[in-house]
Structures are given as structure tokens and as C-alpha cells.
Amino acid sequence: MNKFLWVFLALIWIAALIVLIIALTENGSNDVFADYKFIIGIGFIAITGFLRILYKRSKVGN
Length: 62
Prior knowledge:
The protein is mainly alpha-helical and 62 residues long. It is built from two helices and no strands. The chain has one domain. The longest helix has 25 residues. The termini are close together.
């Protein structure tokens, strides 16, 4: 995979991390993600797992 794709995937992962932090932080306002904490957490773990698999496959292929 080329470098542009890895940068794009890293930006998606960082965005997912920011959403996870917002969802898990109790800041008192009407939080949009408050009702979906569990789903967001599972989604973040899934994204991280898929990226790990892609990274390992790309390193084995080289």
C-alpha cells in the first residue's frame, strides 16, 4: 500500500479516537454520542483490529 493510503487510514483512526474520547467524557452538555458509548467503543476496537491486520499483511508482502 502506498504512503497516501496509510496517511488517510491514520486520519480515519485519529477521527475515531476523537469520537471515542468525546463519547466517553462526561462533560455535562447534551452529548450526541452519549447513548452510543458501547457501539463507539466496539467500532474503535474493530477499526484498530482491521488496521493492524492490514499493516501486518503489507509488511509480510514486502
